[in-house]
Amino acid sequence: MNFKILRELSVIKTLRFNWRYFKWKGFKLPVFVSKNFLLKNTGGKVEVSEYKTGLIKLGFGSIGIFDKRYDRGIWENSGHVIFSGRSDIGLGSKVSIGTGGKVCFGDRFSITAKSEIVCNKEIVFGDNVLISWDCLLMDTDWHDIYDKDRNITNFDAKIIIGDHVWIGCRSTILKGVIIPSNNVIAANSTISKEFKVTDSIIGGANKVLKENIQWGDIQ
């Protein structure tokens, strides 16, 4: 463990999280929790691919435009979370999972800072997914909408993000979205439908901005 992680680590929160979800196996501390990360609701269920120390980090990192003293992350889980490898949910980020909701994080998943995941049904991330700051991913409207005959028109719909997808800052990913592997979501985009392209930049309001891009892996 490097000094920077050690300095930001909350021993009490880390022990609490690991004991709550993993009991005796949790003493290997697969999840590190920072001092600025609020464990608002440690209900539901969490699974990890292996009990390796520090495999998952909640609330760490540093982005110049954010203040660690005030940008607090939140964990609120009443559903089911699966970590399939290393995950870094960065400074000020928030994860909220309702009863019956399920979030699957692929290997080498990363949020740089201050983004939000709101799940009432299911959100699936592939491997090597990178999410920038101020992004929102939400598979629900969290309220009912009725037509003139009082029929409910609101529904929850799964979000699927493939492998090797980068999501630029201040983007919003809404219910029913499918982003195939090897794509980039441009900054400040609103995505609300399924796409079938690969090696492309998707942005604006559901537009393919550029195709046949070449880019590197997360290091």
Determine the strand fraction and express it as a percent band. 35-45%
Rg over CA atoms: 18 Å
| Annotation field: number of helices | 2
Overall body shape:
globular
Unreliable residue runs: none
Total DSSP E strands: 22
What summary fits the major beta sheet? 9 strands, mixed
**Average pLDDT number:** 92
Our measurement of the CA-to-CA distance between the termini, rounded to an integer number of angstroms, reads 19 Å
Biggest sheet, spatial arrangement of strands: 1-4-7-10-13-16-19-21-22
Order of helices and strands: HHEEEEEEEEEEEEEEEEEEEEEE
- Helix/strand-derived class? mainly beta
What level of helicity do the residues show?
A: under 10%
Could you please describe the fold and organization of this structure?
The protein is 8% helix and 36% strand. It has two helices and 22 strands. The longest helix is centred in the N-terminal third of the chain and has 12 residues. By secondary structure, the protein is mainly β. The model has no long low-confidence stretch (mean pLDDT 92). The strands form three sheets. Strands 1-4-7-10-13-16-19-21-22 form a nine-stranded mixed beta sheet.
